[in-house]
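Problem 12. The chain below contains 249 residues. Write out its predicted structure in token notation.
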Amino acid sequence: MPRTHASLPRLYVEPDLGQDTPITLGKEQSLYLAAVLRKTVGDTVVLFNGRDGAWLCRLTGDAKKAVVLHAVEQIAPQTPGSDLWYGFAPLKTERLDYGIQKATEMGVGVIQPVLTQFTQVSRLKHERLVANAIEAAEQCEVLSVPTVCGEVTLDRLLDGWAGEQGSRLLVLADEGEGSSSPLEALAALKGNPVGLLIGPEGGFSDAERQRLRAQPFVVPVSLGPRILRADTAAVAALAVIQATIGDWR
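Solution.
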């Protein structure tokens, strides 16, 4: 997106966006623009919906319960959705929020919570996870909000992998792997759809590690000589993947 619009408020919306299209915001977003940001008729904001690119929109009605805008011009074309799959064992609330936000910023296309033997949290508020992904997309000029899936057990994930993911390879950040650079292993995956799996604090159980490493689609990698916290490992691994075989190249 052009940096000339970087200072404008940026909101994710559901309706279609197009030239001169009117958009009526819901109560929460209307209050945010009219009461919190004090935007009035004539002011501009940026809207996106994950389908139609980013649009410069002008307020034509500033009622605090139903702000009305009109799309003026498209300021950025829609970017294609990412094919990068990201699975992780959920952490406690604040670090869980952080993980969803960073995964969105790092350009993942699908976010999949995975319940393992040592997972700290077993019940998730799906709406909160989606809200965190949307907020990160709004703040970081991401035009394709990732799909946030409901939680699934590790066993169920592995049982259904071939049927649901086809030929996708699964990069496993494995603290038990001998310390080495992951670059060579990742470079060998170029051209293949990939996913990343990050385990819980304390790692996978021995039985889980054995089953993971026995799968033909799993590619274990090391993230270096230090044991990383799960949220740190996620950001480090996503950065290396994007830089080596992803959209940073």
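Discussion. Residues 126-140 form the longest helix (15 residues). Students who got a different answer should revisit the alignment rule from Section 12.3.
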